[in-house]
Amino acid sequence: MTSQVNPLAPATASAPPTFHVYDTTLRDGAQQEGMNLSVADKLAIAPLLDELGVGFIEGGWPGAIPKDTDFFSRAASELTLKNAVLAAFGATRKAGVRAADDQQVRALLASQAPVITLVAKSDIRHAERALRTTGAENLAMITDTVAFLVAEGRRVVLDAEHFFDGYRFDPAYSRAAVEAAFAAGAEVVALCDTNGGMLPELVGEIVTELRDVVGIPDGLHAQPGDPLLGMHAHNDSGCAVANSLAAVAAGAAHVQGTVNGYGERTGNADLITVVANLELKQGRSLLVDGGLQETTRIAHAISEITNISPYARQPYVGASAFAHKAGLHASAIKVDPDLYQHIEPTLVGNDMRMLISDMAGRASIELKGREMGFDLTDQGDVLSRVTNRVKDDEARGYTYEAADASFDLLLREEIAGERPQYFRVESWRTIVERAGGRGTEATAEATVKLHAGGKRIVKTGEGNGPVNALDHALRLALRRVYPEIEAFELIDFKVRILDTEQGTDAITRVLIETTDGARSWSTVGVGPNLIEAAWEALTDSAIYGLVHAGVSAR
Amino acid sequence: MTSQVNPLAPATASAPPTFHVYDTTLRDGAQQEGMNLSVADKLAIAPLLDELGVGFIEGGWPGAIPKDTDFFSRAASELTLKNAVLAAFGATRKAGVRAADDQQVRALLASQAPVITLVAKSDIRHAERALRTTGAENLAMITDTVAFLVAEGRRVVLDAEHFFDGYRFDPAYSRAAVEAAFAAGAEVVALCDTNGGMLPELVGEIVTELRDVVGIPDGLHAQPGDPLLGMHAHNDSGCAVANSLAAVAAGAAHVQGTVNGYGERTGNADLITVVANLELKQGRSLLVDGGLQETTRIAHAISEITNISPYARQPYVGASAFAHKAGLHASAIKVDPDLYQHIEPTLVGNDMRMLISDMAGRASIELKGREMGFDLTDQGDVLSRVTNRVKDDEARGYTYEAADASFDLLLREEIAGERPQYFRVESWRTIVERAGGRGTEATAEATVKLHAGGKRIVKTGEGNGPVNALDHALRLALRRVYPEIEAFELIDFKVRILDTEQGTDAITRVLIETTDGARSWSTVGVGPNLIEAAWEALTDSAIYGLVHAGVSAR
C-alpha cells in the first residue's frame, strides 16, 4: 500500500529507534575507484555523518586493514558522537576454527566498537565455490561468530552477502542463513544485493516472502527486541535507491548506504537520496531534527575531504538539482516555484538556480540578476539590452550559464555603461617552443604590458603552457598595484572548440574557475584561438575578483 | 507479475514495433547545465543513436530555437537513418488561436519530421496558472493541434506534462487530457513526471489505474493502431530508471530517455540503463540485433561530442561499472566471474577490469589489431607489450578508443620496433601576440625546422591560432618532399583538459580528425599544454596519412 504520509509511532524514551539509517561511506564507500581515505580523513568525515543524524557509522575493517585498526583506536579517544554509534565491519570466523580463536574476529572485539557487522555467505554457491566449505559449516560459522560476539556484549548486524542472487538459486539455504543469524542473537540481518543486479519489484517480493516464512514483523511496527531486516543495495541496474525503498515498503527497518553514493563499480545506494525520499515523500522521521536541511552542506563537505568531484546532477544535493534552464519554465517559476519543483530546495539545504542561456527569456534574466544582487524590476531597457546581448553572445560561442562572474560583469557593463577599469592592457604575447627533437620538453613564456596605478608595467611569466604562462604574467603585472590578486588562484580550466567541423578555424571557448580561498567564481572567454579566449577569461576573472574584494581602481 | 523472461510476440513484417525506445538526448538532454550542442554536434550524434537502434530521435524544437530549425533543415539532406525516425518537439497551439494559424505549430510541420511530439498541460493547475487559460480551452488546444497534425499526415506523440502531479491533484482532468489526445488521433501519450518527484510504486499504480479507466490495452499485447502509453521520467528522486520500469510493468509501451541520462537538473532517465535492464533482465528485444553490445562505445562517443566528462560509475557503460577493487572479490573473480557480476560486461560492450585482465585486455587488442589488418595470432610478446603500453598510455591521458590512427602507429611501432620515419623534427615554436589594446586582433605564427628528403627545411606558417599556424607550418615544411600531404585536410579538433582540479597544471589531450577526401582518420596527442598535445596529434596524422597513401620515406 502506498502511503504518502505515514508517521512512525513515536518512540518512547527507553525504546531503541525502530528504523536504522546505517552509513557505510567509510567502509564500502571507500572501495570506490579513486578514493583513498587516510585515518585523518575518516576522523574528519565521521563527525559530519554524526551531524547528519545517521544511527550507525561503519568505520572500516579493523584487523584486516591496518589503517582501520588505527581509526578505531583513535576514534575511542578522539571521536565524540552525539547521534550515531560506531560499527566495525568484518567477516564470520574461518571454516574449521572456533570464533573465539579466530584472529580476525578477535580484532573486531578489540576495536571496542559497540556494533559489529559481519559479512557472511548466504548464497550456497559462494559458500561452496568461493569459501570452499560446506553449506552446513557456513551456517555454523554464522551461528558461532554471532553468538560469540553477542555474548561479549556487542550488538551484531549480519550482512547476508549475495542474498538475492542466492535466494533465487536456493531459497531454503539463504533463508537458513538468515534464521541462523537471528537465532544466534543478531539484531539485524541486512540483505545484500552484492552484484547490484536486482530490480525493485523482485526485491519487494523476496523481502515480503522472507518475512512471511521466517516470521519477521513489519519493520513499521517493530518492537524493541524484534528481529529487523535491512537492505544493502548497489547501483549496477541504476535502481539502488528504488531497491532500498522497495525493501522498506516490504518491511525492512534498516537501510545501508553511502553519502554521495560512493562505492565500488557503480556505487552503493545514495543514503541521502533514500532518506530524503522516506522523510519528504513518506513522512518518516529518520534523521535528527533539522538533519535533512544540512544534507547539501554535509554532502559537499564530505566530497571536499574525499577529493572526489561532486556530481552536479546528484538528486537533492547536487549543484544542478534545482537549476532550471528552459525558457519554458522560467516565466512560470517566477509565479509559482512549487509548480516546477518536486520539493522546496531549502528542505535539503539546497537552492533554486536559474541558468542563463539562449533558452532564457527576460524572466530568467531578471531572476538571475536578483540572485546576484541586482534589482532590475523596473529597468525594462536594461533587461532588454541584456537579454539580447546574452542571445548574441551565446550565438558567438559564449556560455553564461557556467560563468556567473562574466555575467555579473556584463550586467555591470549594461547598467553602468562600462566595465570596471582597474588596468589598461597595451599588449601581450606568448611563445611556446620545443627547441629539440621528439621527446624533449617544450617551454612556454608570456609577456604582458599594461598600465595600472599610473605606471606602465612589463612582466614576463613562465609556465607549463601558454595559458599557464599568461596567468603568471598577468599576476606578476598586477600584484604591486593590486596585492589582493595574490589571493586568487586558478583552480579549473576547460576548453571547448565550437563548430568543430571547421577544424582549427573554429571558435574556441575557455571557462576558468578562480578561488580566493573563501568563494570561487567562473569566467568565460571566446576567441579564434585558445590563447585569446583564455586571455579574456583571465582578465575578467581578475576584474571580478577585485570588484568583489571591494577594491577601487588605483 | 515479475517475469524474468517474457519475450514480446514477434512483430510481423507489416506490423509496427509494439515497443518504442524514444531518445530525447538532442532535445530534453540538451537542457543539461553545461551542454551547448551546435547543429554539427547534433548531426554527429544522430547517426550514433541510429546505430544503437532507438526507434525515435527527438531532434529539437524547430521554429522556437533557431539552431533546431537549422538542424531539421540540414537533416533532411544530410542524415540517412536506418533504424530511427526523426521527431520534432513543440507545444500545442496557443490559447484562442486555431492550430492551422499558430506559427509555432506550422514550424513543426515545416521541419518535415515524420513524427511530431507535442508537450501539453495535463495538470489543471498548470493550465490555469502557467498558461492562464481554462481547463476546457487547454483540452481543445490538445484536440485541435493533434487532429491538425494527424490530418497533415504526421504521427503524433503527446507529452502529458506534469501528468503524475496533476493526476494526484485532479485525476479526472489529467485523464481527460489523455483521452482528448487519443481521440484526436495521437499514437502515443507519454506520461511525464516533469518535476521528477515520483516513486516507482505510485507510478505503477497510476499507470495501471489509468489504463483500466481509459481502456488502454497492456503494451505487451498492443496491436498496430492501439493507443500506447509512454513514460518520461526525470531523476529528482533518484528513481528515473525504476519509474520507467514500473510504468512498463504496468503496461506502457514507449519509454523516453537520454543517453548518459543527460537532462535538466538531475537529468532524464538514462535510456541505455532502462533498455539494458529490459533486454537483459526481462528478455525484451528492443534495439537492433547487436545494438546492446555497442552501447558502451556509443555512450562514450556521444560524450566526446557533447564534451561532457563521462561519469565513471554509470550503470552498464561507465568505465568503473565492472571494475573490481582488490581484496574481497579478486581471488574469487579469477575462478568464477559470474559469481561477482550481475551480467557479462561484453553484453553491453564493456570490459571487466582488474582481474587476470591480461586475458581480457589481450583478447580485445588482438581483435582490434586484426580489424586493422595486423595478424597477431602467434605474437604473444607483441600482444603483451602492446597491452601494457596501451594501459600505461591511457593512464597518462591517451585515449586510443577515439584515435584509431594513433593506435595503428602504436602497433607498427611495437611490431617493427619503430614508427615510420618520414621526417626528423629539429624544433618548432609558436608565437601568439596581441599587439594592441582590447578589441584589436591577435596574430599567430609558427615556425617548424625539420629534415626530410635529405634536406633541412625551415618554414613559418600563420593562422588564426597557434595550432592552426603549426598545422600550416608543418604542411609547408613537408609538401615539397611529400606532395601527397596537400590532399590532407584537418576537419575536426577537440581539446580536453584532464584532471581539471589542477587548474592550468593539468594534462591536455587533443584529438584531431583528418581527411584525404576519401577516408578520414583520428589521432591523439597528450601533453602538459595544448600546443605540445596538438603537435603530437598533427605529426601522427601526417605519418599515418603517408603510410596509408603507400608513400615511402624519401
Automatic annotation (TrEMBL), chains A, B:
<dbReference type="GO" id="GO:0009097">
    <property type="term" value="P:isoleucine biosynthetic process"/>
</dbReference>
<keyword id="KW-0028">Amino-acid biosynthesis</keyword>
<dbReference type="InterPro" id="IPR002034">
    <property type="entry name" value="AIPM/Hcit_synth_CS"/>
</dbReference>
<dbReference type="InterPro" id="IPR054691">
    <property type="entry name" value="LeuA/HCS_post-cat"/>
</dbReference>
<keyword id="KW-0100">Branched-chain amino acid biosynthesis</keyword>
<dbReference type="InterPro" id="IPR013709">
    <property type="entry name" value="2-isopropylmalate_synth_dimer"/>
</dbReference>
<dbReference type="InterPro" id="IPR000891">
    <property type="entry name" value="PYR_CT"/>
</dbReference>
<dbReference type="GO" id="GO:0043714">
    <property type="term" value="F:(R)-citramalate synthase activity"/>
</dbReference>
<protein>
    <recommendedName>
        <fullName>Citramalate synthase</fullName>
        <ecNumber>2.3.3.21</ecNumber>
    </recommendedName>
</protein>
<comment type="pathway">
    <text>Amino-acid biosynthesis; L-isoleucine biosynthesis; 2-oxobutanoate from pyruvate: step 1/3.</text>
</comment>
<dbReference type="GO" id="GO:0009098">
    <property type="term" value="P:L-leucine biosynthetic process"/>
</dbReference>
<feature type="domain" description="Pyruvate carboxyltransferase">
    <location>
        <begin position="19"/>
        <end position="298"/>
    </location>
</feature>
<dbReference type="InterPro" id="IPR013785">
    <property type="entry name" value="Aldolase_TIM"/>
</dbReference>
<comment type="similarity">
    <text>Belongs to the alpha-IPM synthase/homocitrate synthase family.</text>
</comment>
<dbReference type="Pfam" id="PF00682">
    <property type="entry name" value="HMGL-like"/>
</dbReference>
<keyword id="KW-0808">Transferase</keyword>
<keyword id="KW-0412">Isoleucine biosynthesis</keyword>
<dbReference type="GO" id="GO:0003852">
    <property type="term" value="F:2-isopropylmalate synthase activity"/>
</dbReference>
<dbReference type="Pfam" id="PF22617">
    <property type="entry name" value="HCS_D2"/>
</dbReference>
<dbReference type="InterPro" id="IPR036230">
    <property type="entry name" value="LeuA_allosteric_dom_sf"/>
</dbReference>
<dbReference type="InterPro" id="IPR005675">
    <property type="entry name" value="Citramal_synthase"/>
</dbReference>
<dbReference type="Pfam" id="PF08502">
    <property type="entry name" value="LeuA_dimer"/>
</dbReference>
